[in-house]
């Protein structure tokens, strides 16, 4: 099929961003730098796979205004890189997220906590290490995992019970970095380079600073003067906060977190990382944590990413996967600015000012269309609740409620045995089967479709279809009125 001239089927000819949007972005960055009193602040926005705007204020290096290629330290955004490495090990079958740590990294003293709990900060470990402030002291002060975990190695001395609540833990990500090294057989930094930054083309993301890079400063709270912050190699704590990067690289990494990349991690695996790992509090929620990523709800939008800070630096990376917009913001001050919240504001500003252009509708490929699949599409009923089954690419299907109700809808991936497995929603991981044989109002012929079986639920072509294999049976009196 071809598109007629003058339509919007090819958005590559559209303006990168409207002038009004670009000015609004610059205004927001300038206000953040001035109000936050930071030596320099740089930011960028990526949409549909390319950086569409960048801006900076202040001077990062000897009077030079930073650009998209100047490195800043990104602090805890590093944790997301570490989580991706762990998910890769899972996808390769080298570990299971339910595995106890002891299975792969013995002798830690906390070996009963699971990989999943460590990824989602539900292992109950302390937030920080014992001893001097680890972010401002050399990693050599913590040569072994015992020096990182300290007195919380015993269950009775941990701040929170494992598996029940979210309790952010920097030492927990040290354990994950050591787990990667034990299973992969290379250093954590080498694994990041080989398995993430090189495949994704993140040429300006590294464990050690590479020129040009910003200097880290503390700004006096009551005077416009600066104090240089120390830059330490974090040693064993590196997987929790060591990396340096740029707004250009972080935007590209944000696009990966939204859509995946088969060279690193599949779309389904990065989607799994976005699922809340800890029980949500009662009522509506605005922030939660998945597996190595934070998840925010802002103005009706769901953003995924992470904030980060180390002495002298503040960072933020956020992406709206639905609108395909990512933003990163980096500043070289210990406090005084919220680069993380700035990045969320930039995402929302672009997504609201210039909504995503819908992709061109295309019919399914001929290889995905078969008569027996088409015959399954349309309305089905779970009891009296109407559902619609739709055919998707790759012989997949979706099942969604048609009465406006919420919940119990899913997409399904086709299996080799004629069944489908749920990908998301209520039926994630559940198996959908087509049951053939006798049944139905007129007694389906042998081999004809009788009903759909989904996790023991029976879906029929009519509400409580007479003669169908519905658990508990159907009243022989049929449907009736009152009286």
Automatic annotation (TrEMBL):
Domain DUF7586: 369-461
Cited Gene3D superfamilies: DD-peptidase/beta-lactamase superfamily
Taxonomy, superkingdom: Bacteria
Pfam families listed in its UniProt record: Beta-lactamase, DUF7586
InterPro entries assigned to the protein according to its UniProt record, in alphabetical order: AmpC-like (IPR050491), Beta-lactam-related (IPR001466), Beta-lactam/transpept-like (IPR012338), DUF7586 (IPR056008)
Beta-lactamase-related domain segment(s): 29-345
Coiled-coil regions listed: none
PANTHER family: D-ALANYL-D-ALANINE CARBOXYPEPTIDASE, D-ALANYL-D-ALANINE-CARBOXYPEPTIDASE/ENDOPEPTIDASE AMPH
Protein name as annotated: CubicO group peptidase (Beta-lactamase class C family)
């Amino acid at each position: 099929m071809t598109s007629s001239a003058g339509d919007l089927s090819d958005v590559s000819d559209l303006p990168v961003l409207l002038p009004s949007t670009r000015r609004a972005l610059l205004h927001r960055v300038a206000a953040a730098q001035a109000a936050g009193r930071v030596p320099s602040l740089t930011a960028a926005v990526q949409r549909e796979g390319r950086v569409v705007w960048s801006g900076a204020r202040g001077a990062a290096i000897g009077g030079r205004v930073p650009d998209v290629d100047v490195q800043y330290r990104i602090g805890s955004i590093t944790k997301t890189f570490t989580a991706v490495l762990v998910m890769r090990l899972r996808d390769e079958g080298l570990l299971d997220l339910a595995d106890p740590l002891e299975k792969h990294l013995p002798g830690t003293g906390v070996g009963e906590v699971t990989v999943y709990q460590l990824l989602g900060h539900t292992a109950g470990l302390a937030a920080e290490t014992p001893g001097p402030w680890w972010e401002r002291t050399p990693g050599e002060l913590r040569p072994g995992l015992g020096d990182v975990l300290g007195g919380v190695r015993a269950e009775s001395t941990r701040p929170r019970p494992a598996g029940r609540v979210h309790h952010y833990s920097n030492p927990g990500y040290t354990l994950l970095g050591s787990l990667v090294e034990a299973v992969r057989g290379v250093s954590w930094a080498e694994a990041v380079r080989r398995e993430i930054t090189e495949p994704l083309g993140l040429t300006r993301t590294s464990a050690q600073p590479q020129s040009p890079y910003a200097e880290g400063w503390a700004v006096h709270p009551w005077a416009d003067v600066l104090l240089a912050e120390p830059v330490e190699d974090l040693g064993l704590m590196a997987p929790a906060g060591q990396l340096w990067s740029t707004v250009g690289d972080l935007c590209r990494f944000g696009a990966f977190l939204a859509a995946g990349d088969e060279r690193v991690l599949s779309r389904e695996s990065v989607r799994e990382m976005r699922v809340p790992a800890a029980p949500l509090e009662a009522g509506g929620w605005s922030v939660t944590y998945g597996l190595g990523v934070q998840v925010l709800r802002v103005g009706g939008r769901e953003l995924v990413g992470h904030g980060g800070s180390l002495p002298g630096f503040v960072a933020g990376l956020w992406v709206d996967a639905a609108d395909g917009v990512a933003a990163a913001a980096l500043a070289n001050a210990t406090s005084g600015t919220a680069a993380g919240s700035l990045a969320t504001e930039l995402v929302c500003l672009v997504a609201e000012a210039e909504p995503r252009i819908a992709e061109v509708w295309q019919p399914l490929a001929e290889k995905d269309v078969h008569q027996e699949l088409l015959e399954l599409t349309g309305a089905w009923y779970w009891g009296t609740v109407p559902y619609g089954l739709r055919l998707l690419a790759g012989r997949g299907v979706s099942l969604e409620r048609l009465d406006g109700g919420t919940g119990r809808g899913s997409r399904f991936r086709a299996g080799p045995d004629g069944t489908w497995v749920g990908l998301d929603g209520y039926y994630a991981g559940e198996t959908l089967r087509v049951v053939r044989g006798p049944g139905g109002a007129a007694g389906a012929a042998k081999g004809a479709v009788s009903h759909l079986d989904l996790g023991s639920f029976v879906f029929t072509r009519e509400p409580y279809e007479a003669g169908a294999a519905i658990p508990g049976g159907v009243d022989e009196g049929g449907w009736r009125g009152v009286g």
